[in-house]
Amino acid sequence: MKAAIVAEAGRSPIYGDFRNPTPASGKSIIKVNASTISHVTRGRAAGTHYSSEGTLPCVPGIDGVGVDPEGKRVYFLSPEQPFGAMAEFSLVDDRHRFTIPDALSDEAAAAMAIPGMSSWAALVERAILRPGETVLVNGATGASGRLAIQIAKHLGAKKVIATGRQVRQFDDLRRLGADAVIALTEDREALEQLFKREFSQGVDIVLDYLWGPSTETLVIAAAKASPEGVPVRFVQIGSIGGANINLPGAALRSTALQLMGSGIGSVPLPKMLKAIQNMLAAAPGAGFEIATECLPLASVTDAWSRLDSSPRIVLVP
After folding, report:
1. pTM of the predicted model as reported, rounded to 2 decimal places
2. By C-alpha distance, which of 122, 119, 129 is closest to 283?
3. I want to staple 156 with a disulfide (CB 3.0 to 4.6 A). Which of 13, 73, 111, 131 is the partner?
4. Comparing C-alpha atoms, which of 253, 244, 190, 197 is closest to residue 223?
């Protein structure tokens, strides 16, 4: 079969021939219609993500959309190694797939699944959002952050605060549902003041896609300005802004800040699948939007080198 192939950790995949998967007990062959390049997929292929298995050569791709042996359109997650989603066929545990709504195209479902899951699982499984609460999305201009705004509002958030560096996108973030926006291009002192103003009014949940310097400033502002004794549920999701932060102990002693993460491991796979299923089921009626660009699987090497997170690249065999 034709597939994207990673032969060496850290190298971009190449398009070529890979052996066909064979069905096994409890596992089926899925004819792949669409797959996407995500941060997790890149990290696992490079061997740098904490969930990497290190099997080489392999086909990358942690999820996709295709057709199962019964002819149903399905979304699938966590295909069996080394048969990832970026191929004509993939081998998938029967527990790791479900049918998708007719109103969603293959490309939209594939593009939306992982970034949408990141906020849906964080809000439902980790932070346990209650209707009427305020959510701050740190890093809202990427595909995941833009969906997080829409999903938070759909799940009942009364107010959503969005942060980002791409100021030119702020009008669009407001259109998607952001009630307030904060430019991360401000110097640290000015940024802290902007964060403190929001925390003084009450922020219940933070979805952090960045980590790094902006998160340091955010945590300090939360410690200084949050109402006394009122919990702030801080959910760490991504770290494109930096791998580490300096966390003052006083920030935890002086506020009811609750630090947690959301991702592979902290959310069990069945709950992750359920989050994706519920999010995709809601997407047509809620009108969730995600920018996509469809490219042939044969162009995977060039597509892999594009590091921008929007629009989301969908590979079609």
Report:
1. 0.93
2. 119
3. 131
4. 253
